[in-house]
Specification:
8 helices
Length: 320
C-alpha cells in the first residue's frame, strides 16, 4: 500500500495573523511573518488504501469533528481518494497554543500528497496546507517566512514565501507554558468574533502592512531590538482586538501576565528579550541564542514548563 511519512515544525508568528477574508479557504485579512522552530515537531504517516479511514493523534484514535477535519483535508489533497490511515505524533502539547495545527497540516499535506503519488513544490503544498490551518502554510519552509494575504478569490496567491533560512540568524524562542489544557475559543471562531465586533479590528488590518515591512527589514539586517519591538507591538494589537471583541476573548492566565512582567524586567536589566503570544496563555520569548538559558532561568518560576527552541528547517519526507 502506498505510504509516506513527513516531519514538519511549528512556526510562531512574529507579525500576527488574526482575521479571515474567507473562512472556507482560510484566506487571511492580513499578512504575517513567522519563525519556524526546531525542537518541536509533528511526524505524520499516511497509508493510502486501508480498509477504512482511521486517524490517530499521539496513538489515540481521533473521532468526530477533529477526525473529519483531517479526512476532509485528505479529500482536498486527492478527491476520490481511497480509504486511508493517518498517524500523527507530536513531541510537544497539542492544541495548547503552541502552533500544533501548523506543523500538523504542513506534515499532513506533504505526507498525503506523497502517498497519493503527487510531487508538489513547497508553494503548492503551502496552498494546500493553508486550507487545513492558515498558519500551516508557513511551516513548509524553515527559518523566516512571510504569508502574503493574496488578492484572488480562489486563494492561489495566498501562500508562504521564504524570507531567510534557519541559519540566517542565531536566535532562540523560549517557550513558557503556563497552562496545558485546550483553548477556550478556537482561532477561527475567535477571529470571526473579532472581525465582526471589535472596534479595533479595522485599525488592526490597516497597520499590519507597516508591521510586516518593519519585520522584513529587521530580519534582513538582523536587528533584534527592531524585530522584538514590532513583534511585541503586533502581539499586543492582536490581543487588544481579542479583548475588545464581544464577548471578550481573554486567553491570558495570571501566569501569562507574570511572564510578561518578567520579560520586561529582564529587558530592563540589559537582556534583549521580547514577548509574543498566540490564541492561548503561553508566552514565547524571542532573544539571542546566547541569552536563551538566562531568559529560560528567569521564566521558570512562573511556568509549568520552559523549552528553549531554535530556528528549525523545512517540512520534509522521512523514511517511516
Ligand atoms: O492558523 P490558525 O487558525 O491556528 O491561526 C493562528 C493564529 C495565531 O496563532 C494567533 C497567529 C498566527 O499568525 O499564527
Amino acid at each position: 500500500m502506498p505510504s509516506a511519512t513527513a516531519i514538519a515544525h511549528p512556526n510562531i508568528a512574529l507579525v500576527k495573523y488574526w482575521g479571515k477574508r474567507s473562512i472556507p479557504l482560510n484566506l487571511p485579512a492580513v499578512g504575517s511573518v513567522s519563525l519556524t522552530l526546531g525542537g518541536y515537531r509533528t511526524q505524520t504517516a499516511v497509508c493510502w488504501g486501508t480498509e477504512r479511514d482511521l486517524v490517530f493523534l499521539d496513538n489515540e484514535p481521533l473521532l468526530g469533528g477533529p477526525a473529519k477535519r483531517v479526512l476532509d483535508f485528505l479529500d482536498l489533497v486527492d478527491p476520490g481518494r481511497p480509504q486511508c490511515e493517518v498517524r500523527s505524533d507530536n513531541n510537544f502539547p497539542s492544541g495548547a497554543g503552541l502552533a500544533s495545527s501548523a506543523s500538523a497540516f504542513a506534515a499532513l499535506a506533504l505526507a498525503a500528497s506523497a502517498a497519493a503519488g503527487k510531487t508538489l513544490d513547497p508553494t503548492a503544498l503551502s496552498i494546500v496546507a493553508r486550507q487545513g490551518s492558515g498558519s500551516a502554510c508557513r511551516s513548509l519552509w524553515g527559518g523566516f517566512v512571510e504569508w502574503r494575504p493574496g488578492e484572488r478569490d480562489d486563494g492561489s496567491d495566498s501562500h508562504g514565501i521564504p524570507l531567510a533560512a534557519a541559519d540566517h540568524w542565531d536566535l532562540a524562542m523560549v517557550v513558557a507554558v503556563v497552562h496545558d489544557g485546550p483553548k477556550p475559543t478556537g482561532s477561527t471562531q475567535g477571529m470571526e468574533r473579532s472581525r465582526l465586533t471589535s472596534p479595533f479590528f479595522h485599525q488592526w488590518v490597516q497597520t499590519s502592512d507597516a508591521d510586516i515591512a518593519e519585520a522584513r527589514e529587521a530580519i534582513a539586517i538582523r536587528d533584534l531590538p527592531r524585530l522584538g519591538r514590532v513583534m511585541e507591538a503586533s502581539t499586543f494589537k492582536m490581543h487588544a482586538t481579542m479583548h475588545t471583541s464581544s464577548p471578550p476573548l481573554l486567553y491570558w492566565h495570571p501566569g501569562t501576565v507574570a511572564l510578561l512582567h518578567e520579560v520586561a524586567a529582564a529587558r530592563a536589566s540589559g537582556i534583549e528579550a521580547w514577548s509574543t503570544m498566540d490564541a492561548g496563555p503561553q508566552v514565547k520569548v524571542l532573544c539571542a541564542s546566547a541569552d536563551a538559558d538566562a531568559v529560560a532561568e528567569r521564566l521558570r518560576e512562573h511556568a509549568l514548563r520552559v523549552d528553549v527552541l531554535r530556528p528549525g528547517g523545512p517540512a520534509r519526507l522521512v523514511d517511516a
